[in-house]
Write a structure and sequence with these properties.
There is one protein chain. By secondary structure, this protein is mainly α. Helix content is 68%, strand content 5%. The protein is built from 15 helices and four strands. The strands form two sheets. The chain has a two-stranded parallel ribbon with strand order 1-2. It has a two-stranded antiparallel ribbon with strand order 3-4. Strand 3 (100-104) and strand 4 form a beta hairpin.
């Protein structure tokens, strides 16, 4: 059953039970329990106290049965020390409760057993017992008189096993006084308990979203590239970079053509040809430098803009987003994905444009010299286009799976550190 990150889909009672289950599996020598019975119903709290805290944590009956090979009853020896913080006084009269510490204003006011503290009428613990008994009696007296009619209509749906009301309180009421209880009020309290249990089981909250199912499929939409170009300064900046790449490649082709022209003309003025050749190459160097510089600045600007937009969206997101989105997925967006936009996307973009411009210029030059090359270029182009589509489809899905698979790792690492610390 998926319970969500940090138990977001669990109710308070379910979280208490999960925490107790982890404590049982831990098999420690000392257990510190901070009021685990406060968020559960009365009948559930009774079972947790008797079967979990007493039988498993304190006595370790399951552990003894495994050691003895299920041969007879396990010996009721103490397996560990349990320090329980609770305001449920009905559990303190248990025979396995050795000592009770009453706290007040951050200090220990009274220490003793249940019998010692309850027998002293001046003790604070005895005052707690009296207050609890008076509160219970007042609540019973305020029950409407027509509750019997309500219970008679659908009282058959209530199970006596599930309606274990007040099963933990006979000792307390016996010590203080025998409070009169109406059967109708008991049934009402039992019904409220069952209704709360049903609501607790039904209201599981929204489950965590599945990133594997939500990931994009197919080719990358052209709007993704336009969004990156707009974040970098607009489409005009992208066109300027493309023009610089074309100009730089044109200068490289012109440099080679000038050498060919120089060798064929056999001119006597070598300084003139050398000067033109140097001017062409210096122009190509400056064009390459400026296109590289502009590409880097555009990449940094796009990365900063996308980071700010992502941060604004996350900070302005409703709490339901964080309830249904694992923290590892958010960390993955801010770490690996932004690293790809910062570093890899710029390098890959420069390499892609340089390779495409070089190939186009080579095809143009070869075709200009040998026009018949176009007949052989068509089948080669079709073959490489088919290979490119197959490779891009496979590589694209692998990269998406690689990006998605990082989120559970980050989430597991964060949860592990939270558990350790």
């Amino acid at each position: 059953t998926e319970i969500g990150e940090k138990g977001i889909t669990l109710s308070g009672g379910q979280k208490a039970r999960v925490a107790l289950a982890r404590a049982v599996y831990h098999d420690a020598d000392i257990y510190l329990l901070d009021d685990p019975l406060a968020a559960v119903d009365a009948h559930v709290g009774k079972d947790l106290f008797n079967k979990c805290i007493i039988d498993e944590l304190l006595l370790g009956k399951s552990k003894l049965k495994r050691q003895q090979g299920h041969s007879g009853e396990s010996k009721a020896d103490r397996n560990a020390t349990v320090v329980l913080v609770t305001n449920a006084l009905q559990y303190l009269s248990h025979s396995m409760v050795d000592k009770i510490l009453v706290l007040g204003d951050g200090c220990v006011e009274e220490v003793g057993t249940f019998k010692e503290l309850s027998s002293d009428p001046n003790s604070r613990f005895s005052a707690f017992l009296k207050t609890m008994a008076e509160t219970s009696t007042a609540a019973i007296d305020q029950v409407p008189s027509d509750i019997d009619d309500l219970e008679s209509s659908d009282g058959d749906d209530l199970s006596e096993d599930a309606l274990d009301y007040g099963g933990d309180e006979p000792e307390v009421t016996k010590i203080i006084h025998d409070a009169p209880k109406r059967s109708s009020s008991i049934k009402l309290s039992r019904r409220n308990s069952i209704t709360a249990a049903k609501e607790e089981g039904d209201d599981s909250g929204a489950l965590m979203t599945d990133e594997f199912k939500e990931r994009a499929t197919g080719s990358v939409d052209h709007r993704v590239y336009l969004a990156w170009a707009k974040a970098g300064g607009g489409v005009s900046v992208g066109i300027s970079i493309l023009v610089l790449y074309v100009v730089g490649e044109s200068l490289n082709v012109t440099s080679k053509w000038w050498l060919t022209y120089w060798s064929q003309s056999a001119g006597s003025n070598a300084f003139f040809y050398l000067g033109i050749y140097a001017l062409i190459n210096f122009s190509a160097i400056f064009a390459t430098f400026f296109r590289l510089l502009i590409f880097i600045f555009v990449g940094l600007r796009a990365s900063r803009s996308m980071f700010e937009r992502l941060l604004d969206v996350v900070l302005e997101a409703p709490m339901s987003f964080f309830d249904t989105t694992p923290i590892g997925r958010i960390i993955n967006r801010f770490s690996k994905d932004l690293y790809t936009v910062d570093e890899q996307l710029v390098v890959t973009g420069r390499s892609y444009l340089a390779t495409m411009i070089t190939c186009c210029s080579s095809i143009f030059v070869v075709t200009a010299v040998t026009p018949k090359f176009l007949f052989g270029l068509v089948p080669i182009f079709i073959f490489y286009l088919h290979q490119q589509r197959f490779f891009a489809m496979t590589y694209r899905e692998l990269k998406r799976l690689d990006s998605v698979s990082r989120s559970p790792i980050y989430a597991l690492l964060g949860e592990t550190l939270d558990g350790v610390l």
